[in-house]
Design goal:
alpha/beta; Rossmann fold; 386 residues
Length: 386
């Protein structure tokens, strides 16, 4: 049976009705897409794994918008980190890049973020060239801020000379430079001997012997995660009797688990997230640090709180503040939305997180102030605030 063609008038009515139905339907918003590159394997995996663990318990939505979170392993490899970042912006069309927890990986990722006009929240204190962090904000404390707390503590204990034993990469070199700069400004101790090693090294015996022979009042070990225990133990085994300080990349129980009795008495600079019970009632981060520990240890067990997981917690605090602002400007998946996120971060003002107080500005993408750092001492296999 042959069907009669629709009359022009009926066709017009159908098209008009379909158009009205589209207009009457609720607006379709894209997910907020976040691409995260972490060292889940390789030398810095002790940093990346705890962050990934907390990301698994992130909220599924913020400001009424679903979060689409993509986590990739960069294996502590700068090339893989850059490839991950390129995939995020070209294939996944992310609104935000996060990572890496390894400084040598986070630095080249910043170039991809800047070129694509995508906000990067670095999970490491990545030092970039002037103007290179237009789209990059750091979630961990900067080395200079933490060096400030460490130097003030050294001065109280009468430390006049320091030996440096640190990574050969960007994290080690930036710590050495910032420590020396801050110590000069604060009238602190002088670095009298420096030795370096690679993240992949399994022994630093030769370096430890040279440093012990210099006999400084204190040693500064710049390493991360469980890898911070090896150089510490080497100094003790070579007979060093002075004070040993570790950076905030070593503020993890892996240091005590691997180091055992050799790390007793170690001083570690840290943010407040890992010791909420020891914070005074008036400390601004006490409530959020307590909340972080409760949420993390509910899933992963008592005593498993972690400095690096705390940064992943703080990422949510920042997102909950800036995404509602950016959503008023543009829709996810657009350049305008990415620019609005950057503008919102730069103008979000004083923001309390589990690791201290952030106050990003257009001129300051580090955020934390010198009040952030605390000195923890290893006492009977646990942390004690100095």
């Amino acid at each position: 049976m042959q069907r009669r063609p629709l009359s022009p008038l009926l066709t017009l009515r159908i098209v008009a009705g379909a158009a009205l139905a589209v207009l009457a339907a609720p607006a379709a918003w894209a997910d907020v897409t976040i691409g995260i590159s972490l060292p889940l394997t390789g030398p810095a995996s002790g940093l990346g794994i705890p962050m990934a663990n907390y990301i698994k318990i992130w909220p599924t939505s913020i400001a009424g918008e679903k979060l689409k979170v993509i986590v990739l392993d960069d294996a502590t490899d700068p090339t893989k980190g850059v490839n991950n970042a390129k995939r995020f912006v070209t294939e996944d069309k992310v609104d935000i890049i996060m990572g890496s927890a390894a400084t040598p990986v986070a630095i080249p990722m910043a170039g991809v973020a800047a070129e694509s006009g995508t906000v990067q929240f670095a999970f490491s204190p990545a030092v970039l060239q002037a103007g290179g962090d237009a789209w990059t904000f750091r979630l961990p404390q900067g080395n200079a801020v933490m060096a400030y707390a460490m130097i003030e503590h050294m001065k109280k204990l009468g430390v006049k000379t320091v030996g440096f034993l640190g990574y050969t990469d960007a994290y080690g070199e930036s710590w050495l430079r910032d420590f020396q700069d801050q110590s000069g400004l604060l009238g602190g101790p002088k670095v009298v001997a420096t030795e370096r090693f690679a993240r992949s090294d399994t022994s630093v015996t030769a370096q430890a012997l040279k440093l012990v022979s210099a006999n400084p009042d204190a040693m500064l070990v710049v390493a991360s995660g469980s890898g911070a225990a090896m150089p510490h133990k080497a100094l003790i085994e070579r007979g060093y009797k002075g004070k040993i300080y570790q950076t905030h990349a070593a503020a993890t129980r892996d240091l005590m688990r691997v180091g055992g009795k050799d790390v007793e008495g170690a001083y570690v600079v840290s943010g407040p997230a890992v010791i909420p019970e020891q914070l005074p009632a008036g400390h601004p981060s006490k409530a959020l640090a307590t909340d972080f520990v409760a949420k993390y240890e509910k899933v992963y067990g008592a005593g498993n709180r972690n400095q690096f997981a705390g940064h992943a917690y703080d990422a949510v605090v920042v997102l909950e503040k800036v995404l509602p602002v950016a959503l008023k400007v543009a829709k996810p998946g657009t350049p305008e939305f990415r620019a609005a996120i950057r503008d919102a971060v730069q103008t979000m003002g004083r923001t309390v997180v589990s690791h201290g107080v952030l106050n990003y500005t257009k001129a300051n993408h580090w955020g934390f102030t010198t009040e952030t750092g605390l000195i923890l001492k290893v006492v009977n296999g646990d942390w004690k605030v100095e």
